[in-house]
Design a protein that fits this description.
single chain, 261 residues, alpha/beta, Rossmann fold, 8-stranded mixed sheet, two-stranded antiparallel ribbon, 9 helices, 12 strands, binds adenosine-5'-diphosphate
């Protein structure tokens, strides 16, 4: 139930491994640390990684008397709610082997049948791709009128990823979901010893595409191995990596792109 959710933001990518779930968790944690009530919904049926990233893997969820799923809450004041298909699996190694209709009905149930309570922002980590379950997510967002602010697309800077982002842009346009911005991830690695930046996966391709497609670039993130450990301690880059490009980018996103919009 998203009746008392003020804003929904989708986080999308066409490929896996580009940092979509990392961005989703960091968006949720940054908003949470800014004092807001936040939910994160992991709809990545085939690779749910939010429970791992937020270190809540061994939790199980239950259905309330009304038949709605109750999310996991973090923090004493329960301002961070987490729900993932991963909570319904017996083991992290269990694959989901479902055909389209079962996947789409699960997605519908996940979007409509969770007792989120009062939330300022719900961040939805969506599966990579543009097929059955992705169309269902977009349909659900259009049905819940007035709640979905739009989608943020995460990409890496190299040409092969950018080609997919072009498809994602077309997909969002066809499904009538606004694209809020592009986040370019893994844009170079700065050596901690000599401070030289090496563009391991090329650089600035996301920026170029954003400008070509007339979509705002929300930020360019470097490769920073420290980022993977933070969310496991329920810590955002704002507090955990306070003097870093990551923190600057997320600070700007939260203050100037999300809350102001
Ligand atoms: P996706 O959701 O797109 O599959 P993930 O967010 O799970 O990608 O990221 C894949 C891996 O890359 C994870 O181990 C994550 O910690 C790591 N990662 C993501 N972004 C960065 C980054 N900017 N610097 C270093 N590691 C990163």
């Amino acid at each position: 139930m998203v009746d008392n959710v003020q804003h929904i933001i989708l986080v999308k990518s066409v490929k896996g491994g580009v940092g979509k779930s990392t961005v989703s968790t960091q968006l949720a944690l940054s908003l949470w640390e800014s004092g807001l009530r936040v939910g994160i919904l992991d709809t990545d049926i085939c690779g749910p990684s939010i429970p791992y990233l937020l270190n809540v893997e061994n939790n199980s969820v239950y259905q309330s008397e009304s038949g709605k799923w109750v999310p996991i809450f973090k923090g004493d004041d329960k301002r961070l709610a987490i729900m993932s298909i991963g909570f319904l699996l017996n083991s992290r190694d269990d694959p989901i082997i479902w055909r389209g209709p079962k996947k789409t009905s699960m997605i519908r149930q996940f979007i409509n049948d969770i007792e989120w309570g009062d939330l300022d922002y719900l961040i939805v980590d969506t599966p990579p791709g543009t097929s059955d379950e992705h169309i269902t997510i977009m349909e659900c967002m259009n049905e819940i009128t007035g709640k979905c602010d739009g989608a943020v697309i995460v990409t890496t800077p190299q040409e092969v990823s950018l080609e997919d982002v072009r498809k994602e842009i077309t997909f969002c346009k066809k499904t009538k979901i606004q694209i809020l911005g592009i986040i370019e991830n893994m844009n170079g690695f700065t050596c901690p010893n000599c401070s030289e930046c090496t563009p391991i996966f090329s650089s600035d391709g996301g920026k170029a595409l954003a400008s070509y497609a007339n979509i705002p670039i929300w930020g360019t993130l470097p490769i920073d191995p420290r980022v993977g450990t933070l969310s496991r301690n329920t810590q955002s880059v704002l507090s955990g990596l306070s003097n870093s490009t990551f923190a600057d980018v997320f600070n700007d996103i939260v203050k100037n792109k999300i809350i102001k919009s």
